[in-house]
Amino acid sequence: MLELRAIRKAYRMGSETVVALDDVNLQIHRGQSVAFVGSSGAGKSTLLNILGCLDRPDSGSYRLNGRRIDALSENDLALVRNREIGFVFQNFQLLPRVSALHNVAQPLVYRPMKPAERFELARRALARVGLADRGHHLPTQLSGGQRQRVAIARALCGQPSILLADEPTGNLDSKTGEAILRLFDELVADGHTVLMVTHESEVADRCQRVLRLSDGRLVSEKCNGGDLHARVA
Ligand SMILES: Nc1ncnc2c1ncn2[C@@H]1O[C@H](COP(=O)(O)OP(=O)(O)O)[C@@H](O)[C@H]1O
Ligand SMILES: [Mg+2]
C-alpha cells in the first residue's frame, strides 16, 4: 500500500549540502506497525515527513495506495494528506484556544460535510481514545497524556489509511507513555497501519518491523514475533 523507491532528500545550508535521505527503498503493507530507529540526525523525521506528505523527496518515487504522489501539486498533496494521513507529534500541536472536540474535528473542516456530522465523528474519535467526557476542555485543562490522546483522536478522526507518530511518547512520563503505547497497540490490533519514530528500543520492539536508519540510509530491519534478518536496502 505504501512504496518508496530510491528516495533522496538533501538540505542546502549555505554552501554545504546535508544529505538527509539517500536511496531509501521501502514497502509497507496495510495493517503493519513499523518503528524507525537510529541516532539523532539519521533522517527519521525527514522520512516520516515525506511519508506523511508534509515534505517531498528531491528524487525517487512514492506510491500510496497505488497512486504516485511525489509529483503532485501542493493542493493535491494537501488533499492526500488530509484524506490518507493522521499525524501525531511529540509536542501534541493542539490549537490552544479551542476545545478538545474542536481540535479533533479540525481536519474535517476541509471535507464536504455538515458541522453536525463533523462533530459526531470527532465525538466518536474522542470516545475511542477514552476521552468521551473531556470534549469541552481546553488543551491547558488536560494532562500531557490526555493532550496526546486528543492528538491521536484528531489523527484518527478522518479515518486515514496510515497513522504516523514522531516520538509520540517523548514528552510524557513513562507511565503516561505506556498508556499511549497501549492505545497504539489497540489501533494496530484494530487493523490500523501505524508508523512511528522512536529512539527507545522498548517502544520500537512493540512494532512488527523495526527499521534502522543511519546517515540517511536504511541499514537494517528486524521483524518482531518472527524471523530476524538484516539489511533491507
Ligand atoms: N529543515 C532542515 N534544514 C536543514 N537541514 C535539515 C533540516 N531538517 C533536517 N535537516 C538535517 O537532515 C538530517 C536528518 O535530520 P532528521 O530527519 O531530523 O533526523 P532525525 O529525526 O533522525 O534526528 C540532519 O543532519 C539534520 O540536521
Ligand atoms: Mg527527529
TrEMBL record:
Pfam families: ABC_tran. InterPro entries: AAA+_ATPase, ABC_transporter-like_ATP-bd, ABC_transporter-like_CS, ABC_transpr_LolD-like, MacB-like_ATP-bd, P-loop_NTPase. Residues 2-233 form the ABC transporter domain. GO terms for molecular function: ATP binding. Keywords: ATP-binding, Nucleotide-binding, Transport. The keyword ATP-binding applies. It comes from the Bacteria. Gene3D superfamilies: P-loop containing nucleotide triphosphate hydrolases (3.40.50.300). This is ABC transporter ATP-binding protein. The lineage of its organism: Bacteria, Pseudomonadati, Pseudomonadota, Gammaproteobacteria, Lysobacterales.
